[in-house]
Amino acid sequence: MPEIKGKKILITAGPTHEAIDPVRFISNHSSGKMGIAIAEEALASGAEVTLICGPSNVSSSKEIKRINVQSAQNMFDAVMTEQATHDVLILSAAVADYRPKFVAENKIKKKDSKLTIELEPTPDILASLGERKRADQLLVGFALETDNELDNAKGKLKKKDCDLIVLNSLQDAGAGFGHDTNKVTILDRHNNISTFELKTKAEVAKDILRTIIAFK
Question: Given 28, 106, 168, 191, which residue is catalytic?
Answer without folding.
Answer: 28
